[in-house]
Write a sequence for this structure.
């Protein structure tokens, strides 16, 4: 066993407003430069829909992530030799038409226009060529179900469901899905990079592109099944979410999490057995991937694990942070958070609490909701199978369990509010919810403060080997991204 | 004239390349890549680029074998002069269409798509133009002219590399082939300052790399 610390995030979709506040500071901080206009390290999708880039979840037309080979997981888009052969023209890289042509507006015209009968208009112009254009796609083109009665039919999460019926007005459902790089434990982007420019940080598992080593082969762009590596058409290099590492290193939450007015995000440390990662990624059945990844998360409260982690170089403060990790609580202790598309076999580290939804009116005929029936995950408006296709490779049981627990928690809190005596301290034995767990869950999910939602230990720069802290003082900002000799 | 182009010029070009590459790598590594334009257009590129590259790499191989190995060595291996020439032309005739068609597609897409046209730098055009001249003169040689270069250009290249250039070997060479040769050295000279540097970053170590790369945070500072 070899233990490493890994940053993780949980998003509580039950509370996501779909407000896109998260995307804004992220964009402002990282992707405003020429060439990166179309990059959204964080973006919010409305599901059902084909998402951004279009059809990112479809792996039949453009293979990505990992698949099961004879001796373990192999890159789905071709092995190493295949990738070398496709260097001259990369079949897996989505073209601009799968994202959108970035545009801005001709604001100068507003000032320059002489007197006219009508208000002057700022025309949309391409951010690339400057030519007038009509925007016909964007990062949020399906926002709040816009056009989903058409695009939704191509949503692969309808597998096993009647998409057409479910997209009809009376049945249609919707949820928001904020997406960012998953900082995977078994990242396909890293494995696909022929130049060795993408790497996983030893200390916190954050996946980064070394801009000075990237040679622009674009293999990572196609290999990432979440399509979260973007190609900068101006610098001709790959860029991706950096988990706001300059903030995280000083204990601050990434900007998407920090800014979220819905307070749906949780950031914390997990202790992971990295020696078992390869094997975990090689489950024969895709539906086993969720449980396999759960086994990689080690119990930080276990004294033996903590000792081993310290021996393996995890700083003491990080082990303490892992013990307080909200991600560990939500994913492992309470099992209410689930991975996004575990069948991609990259072992993602941004997990989601599935959203509860109102009772499906058609399910119970004329029946009205009763206190018992409003909690039934099988009758919720968002089909259980749809959520299962998103979060557990189609296995409904874990999603049902998570939703039942969340609904049990609501019942418990409602009873408290109404001053009803719960007879039993075991509030809901069948869902594993005890009074103490319920109180803890309530606190973390509903009223947790900043310091409980983001438990981020600072980086221990002073212990970094071969580093002269005094020399670095005052010169650790952003280096010129065009490189040059480092001083 | 002959002295300039066939004694001085090659060394000037090769020196610029030899100094330019490390200098560029150290001081402006930012754009050290192939400047891919696949984001804007993929269909023509997949065909054009693949044909062009397969062709150009094969033809580079051919140049190395044909120009750098002295004919005497071939003779010793039992390959007659005629056979050598025949093989060279047949190989050239197989490869040249690949290069030319590929280049045609690459240039066509660059001219026709607005997004591509406005993101193409002067250096990109220069590289394409030089490669184009090389391919056209080369194609003319293998399809039309059939000038034997094995007792003119090849020994001259060897003499240049041996640091005792013999410009008189090039005197009888027809103009188009002279252009091919001079253009080739020009290509070497501008190479460090254009997208062509990507040739030197071909990721040959990838097959033996670890599947998932871990790196310590400050190792590279
Ligand atoms: C050694 C292996 C090589 C590899 C892996 C390679 C790879 C690439 C790649 C990925 C591109 C970008 C295509 C795109 O737009 O997406 C490219 C473009 C280009 N390469 Fe290479 N290349 C190699 C060798 C060469 C050689 C030997 C030459 C010729 C001297 C060459 C000349 C060019 C030119 C002119 C372009 C620009 C094409 C355009 O106008 O779009 N390459 N190469
Ligand atoms: S989500 Fe994609 S880019 Fe992020 S670590 Fe995983 S494979 Fe790499
Ligand atoms: S994650 Fe937060 S900031 Fe982003 S859309 Fe949802 S509620 Fe808004």
């Amino acid at each position: 066993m070899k233990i490493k610390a890994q940053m993780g995030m949980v998003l509580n979709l039950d509370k996501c407003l779909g407000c896109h506040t998260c995307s804004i500071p992220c964009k402002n901080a990282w992707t405003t430069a020429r060439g990166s206009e179309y990059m959204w390290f964080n973006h919010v999708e409305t599901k059902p829909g084909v998402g951004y880039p279009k059809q990112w979840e479809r792996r039949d037309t453009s293979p990505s992530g990992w698949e099961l080979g004879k001796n373990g997981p192999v890159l789905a888009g071709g092995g190493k030799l295949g990738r070398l052969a496709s260097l001259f023209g990369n079949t897996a890289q989505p073209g601009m038409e799968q994202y959108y042509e970035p545009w801005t507006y001709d604001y100068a015209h507003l000032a320059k226009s002489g007197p006219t009968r009508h208000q002057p208009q700022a025309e949309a112009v391409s951010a690339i060529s400057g030519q007038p254009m009509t925007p016909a796609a964007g990062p949020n083109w399906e926002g709040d179900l816009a056009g989903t009665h058409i695009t939704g039919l191509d949503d692969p999460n309808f597998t096993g469901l009647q998409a057409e019926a479910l997209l009809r007005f009376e049945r249609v459902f919707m949820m928001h899905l904020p997406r960012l790089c998953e900082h995977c434990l078994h990242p396909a982007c890293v494995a696909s990079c022929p130049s060795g420019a993408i790497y996983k940080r030893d200390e916190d598992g954050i996946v980064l592109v070394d801009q000075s080593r990237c040679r622009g082969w674009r293999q990572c762009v196609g290999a990432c099944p979440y399509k979260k590596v973007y190609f900068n058409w101006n610098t001709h290099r790959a860029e991706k979410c950096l988990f706001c590492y300059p903030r995280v290193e000083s204990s601050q939450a990434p900007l998407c999490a920090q800014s979220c007015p819905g307070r749906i995000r949780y950031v914390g440390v997990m202790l992971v057995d990295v020696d078992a990662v390869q094997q975990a990624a090689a489950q024969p059945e895709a539906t086993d991937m969720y449980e396999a990844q759960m086994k990689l998360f080690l119990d930080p409260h276990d004294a033996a694990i903590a000792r081993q982690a310290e021996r393996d170089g995890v700083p003491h403060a990080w082990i303490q942070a892992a013990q307080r990790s909200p991600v560990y609580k939500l994913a492992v202790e309470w099992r209410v958070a689930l991975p996004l598309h575990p069948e991609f076999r990259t072992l993602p580290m941004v997990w989601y609490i599935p959203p509860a939804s109102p009772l499906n009116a058609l399910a119970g005929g004329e029946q009205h909701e009763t206190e018992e029936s409003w909690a039934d995950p099988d009758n919720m408006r968002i089909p259980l199978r749809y959520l299962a296709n998103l979060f557990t490779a189609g296995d409904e049981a874990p999603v049902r369990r998570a939703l039942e627990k969340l609904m049990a928690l609501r019942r418990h809190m409602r009873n408290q509010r109404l001053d009803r005596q719960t007879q039993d301290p075991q509030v809901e034995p069948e869902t594993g919810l005890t009074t103490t767990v319920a109180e803890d869950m309530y606190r973390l999910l509903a009223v947790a403060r900043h310091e409980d939602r983001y438990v981020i230990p600072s980086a221990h720069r002073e212990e970094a080997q071969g580093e002269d802290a005094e020399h670095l003082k005052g010169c650790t900002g952003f280096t010129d991204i065009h490189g040059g000799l480092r001083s | 004239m002959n002295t300039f182009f066939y004694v001085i010029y090659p060394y000037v070009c090769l020196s610029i390349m030899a100094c330019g590459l490390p200098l560029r790598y150290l001081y402006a590594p930012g754009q050290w890549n192939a400047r891919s334009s696949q984001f804007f257009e993929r269909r023509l590129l997949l065909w054009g680029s693949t044909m062009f590259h397969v062709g150009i790499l094969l033809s580079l191989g051919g140049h190395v074998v044909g120009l750098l190995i002295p004919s005497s060595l071939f003779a010793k291996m039992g390959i007659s002069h005629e056979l050598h020439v025949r093989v060279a032309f047949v190989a050239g005739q197989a490869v040249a269409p690949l290069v030319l068609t590929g280049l045609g597609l690459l240039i066509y897409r660059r001219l026709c798509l607005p997004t591509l046209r406005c993101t193409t730098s002067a250096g990109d055009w220069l590289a394409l133009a030089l490669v184009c001249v090389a391919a056209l003169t080369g194609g003319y040689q293998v399809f039309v002219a059939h000038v034997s270069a094995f007792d003119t250009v090849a020994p001259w290249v060897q003499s240049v590399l041996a640091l005792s250039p013999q410009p008189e070997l090039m005197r009888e060479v027809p103009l188009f082939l002279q252009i091919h040769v001079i253009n080739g050295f020009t290509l070497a000279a501008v190479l460090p300052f254009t997208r062509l540097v990507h040739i030197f970053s071909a990721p040959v170590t990838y097959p033996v790399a670890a599947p998932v790369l871990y790196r310590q945070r400050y190792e590279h500072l």
